[in-house]
Predict the 3D structure of the following.
Amino acid sequence: MLRVVKPRNARSKRALDAREPKEVEDARTAIFVKGTHTGEVVKNVMKDLMALKRPDAISFSKKNDIHPFDAPNTASGSSSIQSLEFWSSKNDASLFAFGQTTKKRPNGLTFVRMYDGKVLDMVEVGIENFVSMNDIKSPKSTPGHKPMMHFASELFDTHPRFMQLKSMLMSFFNGEEIESIHLAGLEHVMSVSLAPTPATLNTASTSADTITSLPKIYIRTYTTKLLSSGTRIPRVELVNMGPSIDLVLRRHTDPDPVMLKQALKRPKLKKTDIEKGLGKKRKNMEVDEMGDLRGRVHVGKQDLGKLQTRKMKGLKGGAFDAEDGDEKATKKKKTS
């Protein structure tokens, strides 16, 4: 039986209400955790990723002996998954970035995604090349701004491993959901591209035998520079901001189908949202490019021969002009 937490005062009640599910969720908080052996490369990568994620980022300064992909310890009865779930519940966070380096898997970085306080899926990558933001002398973006994300490969839409990585990165850097954004608020771009795809790559296979044949992942971050172009649309140039990271895919954990179905479930839309064109499409109603709701009305067939109209001299022609001419002639005869 689950323990029901009752608020003791108004402050704790507001805190509990803020953690309840919402139709439009808040920005996801990410926790950056260091393993027992991290190394300078992993530390600097996590530091730069946390700078891109701020202010929705929490850093654990102490080292933690956790291994997300290992089986739980039967002797102690505890596991790394339980530690992640405890930290997620305590800090109201749904994302983790865990850094660990070993002799077998050097410079490893694991992304963990949570749902309803439980681990949904995990992706482990290896860092092969890294250039820090401090090494690139250029202007940086403002913390808290949403990045524009660009995935430059068809494998992000066809291969299951890269589809999972794309979903993970978008959840990690998506930020808060907003209705509109100013053009000046689009300050930086995150470009995720792949090396040339090997000819032997089977897009339908996800076994461990094909991990070595998967192409490398290149993450580059740029700031946008808006220049005058003589029109209303400015000319955009990209300036390298950093970090630049080269990754390779390693281990992963697929999400549970039942939990994934619940995570993708959307709430029912309100009547006002349906009238704006959202949700299920209604018959003979559509929303134009300007966002206005337009409807089509069908009426019965009309007999235009019985339509009574107003006769105006300015619109007369032909036979009416002839009649007018005859009337004028008769008037002249009477006056004479």
Observations:
- The first helix runs from residue 10 to 19.
- The chain has a mean pLDDT of 81.
- The first strand starts at residue 30 and ends at 34.
- Helices lie at 10-19, 40-53, 80-91, 155-158, 160-173, 257-263, 271-275, 319-335.
